[in-house]
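Weekly structure sync - notes
Attendees: PM, LS, DV (DV joined late)
Agenda: review two folding runs queued last week.

Item 1: First target. Sequence and structure tokens pasted below for the record.
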Amino acid sequence: MADNRIRVLLVDDHQVVRRGLRTFLEVQDDIEVVGEASDGAEGVARTEELKPDVVLMDVKMPVMDGVEALRKLRELANPARVLIVTSFTEQRTVVPALRAGAAGYVYKDVDPDALAGAIRSVHAGHVLLQPEVAGALLSQEETGGGHGRGNSLTEREREVLGLIADGRSNREIARALVLSEKTVKTHVSNILMKLDLADRTQAALWAVRHGAAG
């Protein structure tokens, strides 16, 4: 069982928050908290060291905030999925983190079961975006030049892109299109390369913006 657990790193400058998150998660059979960090810089270092599957990351922290930590992890091509855990509801706080590569966000008063569900969801490849935040992300995107890149996508890649926009994981896409997960991963990589995008979140937003979503 332990080998199949989702490995989670907690990054927050408040010890009481980390303790609360750990308490929430330690009762989950399929989730293992592998470490903690008290700021973004330490979070990046611990992510590289411990190689968690999912990082729960605060936004406002000393030394290095969550947005800058996300950018560092992207530069390092770290595969960990980052779920923002924040007490701030303003879009100006959440949107930059999502643009920097976060897979989604939850609030610090989230129900324990919902938190565990969010961790499982982003680990499975889903993108957790509230409609109003997705709209804010789209409104900040530049409007020029992007649509033409979509002409390079094959019909199958367009199908995969539409399912990414629906929040489907690779496994779910494979099941829907009767493909292997390995083939789906190849399609996803090709989509990101052709559209010059960094991750699935950007791909989902691109699809919505250019009418490729289902």
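Item 2: Second target, run right after the first with the same settings.
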Amino acid sequence: MIRVLVADDQVLIRAGVAALLRAAPDVEVVAEASDGEEAVRLAAEHRPDVILMDIRMPGVSGITATERILRAAHGADGPAPRVVVLTTFDLDEYVYAALRAGASGFLLKDTPPQRLLTAIATVAGGDMLFAPSVTRRLVEAYAQRAAEPAPEAADGPQTLQALTARELEVLRHTAKGLSNPEIAARLVISEATVKTHLNRTMAKLGLCSRAQAVVLAYETGLVTPGMGRL
């Protein structure tokens, strides 16, 4: 049974999504939140497996709520919840910021019901909602539009000093949009070894998702827009 928290300030959307999920045999809606502040509180109280998080909410936004929830879960027992952000527009700064905060992916609000249920099962199983190349294209598209580097970017090189040469190599290929099997073939190592390096990288850098690792690689200059998959 996948335990889900639904957070959306629009009551009709929130109620509709919750009703759809309650009709699914393998999903339990443990709580509904009307804003980001309530989402943070209910996430700590119910420890859901997956959170469907609206990005734009009054007061505490879905982005800030995601950051707070994942930060709190980082040192807690058990796995952190997987956050899926709900948005009206796909390639914009809100989605970029959500991935940067540690979200496992995003869904458009007009997503068909079956796609929503599949997405919940996908992230609950530990996967992203989209191919690594999609994450790269989204991050690169926003990075090309950004006029100023993110505040954290200045400290990026020191942050990456914690990584070994092979971990940096795996992170670089991940940020370029290669999948684990592609990275394994490129570096002539096993796919399990790629996963190990990426998991260690994320643990050292305090990251919650593969998408977050891609964002950090761009912000620190490890990968720059236009580098492609070479």
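Discussion on item 2: Confidence is low (pLDDT under 50) at residues 150-157.
Action: LS to circulate a short write-up before next sync.
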